[in-house]
Amino acid sequence: MRHLIDPTDLSVAEIHEILTLAEDIIAHRDRYREACKGKKLATLFYEPSTRTRLSFTSAMLELGGQVIGFSDANSSSVSKGETVADTVRVIRCFADIIAMRHYKEGAPLVASQYAGIPVINAGDGSHAHPTQTLTDLLTIKREKGRLDHFTIGFCGDLKFGRTVHSLIKALSRCEGIRVLLISPEELRLPTYMLKEMRAHSNLEFREVRTMEEAMPELDILYMTRVQKERFLDEEEFDRVKDSFVLDPSKLAAARGDMIILHPLPRVNEIARSVDNDPRAVYFRQVENGKFVRMALIYKLLEWADENRPYERTPVFDREYVVGGRTCSNRRCISATEDVDQLFRYAEDGTLRCAYCETKAK
């Protein structure tokens, strides 16, 4: 059974296959109007979402399928204490594929071990957001014509931003990518990610503290929100916040063909006066998300038809170290639900939680 829990679950060839299919759907939408007729998508959203949930819903409907599920966990049996594992074992009786967003890191991985149908991670805490990554890659490909040899700047919350983490992982397998990391000290990219990427990827990294330093070099600027709630000192936040707000004055030094991406929602990190700049493509990025999710649903269902569901659960389809250690991350699904304590060795040799990538205790 194939799932999409982490961007690296798909090979480079499979990513290109999905992006190519998405472009074919854009060019020939009528051809796919009944591609998933008779199939049901279950959207299990344990935390609020506008773009991602509606994008999945619209994608399945445009493929001729149906959608069931919930957008508020409090209206489901979760409010009675039902676990993720039990929820998906129930849902598999009604649906052919699941899209799950959860506030606990690792919840979609747990779901994939029990569901017996394809599971798509639609965002788990601050861990990963692989379908946003596919959206970003499709947008870059359509706007820049390639997925290699460019300089991209990630700006804002790089510590907790799951969209940033996922896209960096995906780009680590591309050629000729330079990455500029633009953030306050408090929201730097996690040290373990920096070490892993520098040691085991093709990426070239540099950290900077202001947009002005990076802007002249960029082919792509990827904006995220600087989150006030992450600062222990409000005065420190007030000191740095304006350095990470994109306005026309900061764009003055940017290249004419640079593009601006944002996973949305935005708060104040991109001024409204930037919206009509031809380099601002974040609303086109939203529409690309629907097409790439159409392609992903189509391919996962096609792959599922070639594989029989498993009968016993849980199913571990990778090499794991089971038990003997605990995860210290309170946001991890293993902290609150009765799941197997799973760990695996990262490329840097450290043993990390399989659900959230925190170093094992």
Mean pLDDT: 90
Summarize the main sheet. Answer: 5 strands, parallel
Report strand %.
15-25%
Number of helices: 11
CATH topology of the largest domain: Rossmann fold
The appropriate CATH architecture of the largest domain is 3-Layer(aba) Sandwich
Q: What is Rg?
A: 20 Å
In the predicted model, the low-confidence regions spanning at least 5 consecutive residues are none
Tell me how many strands there are.
12
Distance between the termini: 31 Å
Helix content: 25-40%
- The strand order across the widest sheet is 7-6-5-8-9
Overall 3D form: globular
Structure explained in plain terms:
This protein is an alpha/beta fold and 361 residues long. It folds into three domains: 7-130 and 287-305, Rossmann fold (3-Layer(aba) Sandwich), CATH 3.40.50.1370; 132-284, 3-Layer(aba) Sandwich (Rossmann fold); 321-353, no CATH class. The chain is 33% helix and 16% strand. It has eleven helices and twelve strands. The protein has a five-stranded parallel beta sheet with strand order 7-6-5-8-9. Strand 5, helix 6 and strand 6 form a beta-alpha-beta unit. Helix 5 crosses helix 6 (162-171). The longest helix has 24 residues, at 282-305. It is globular, with a radius of gyration of 20 Å. It starts with 11 loop residues before the first helix and ends in an 8-residue tail after the last strand.
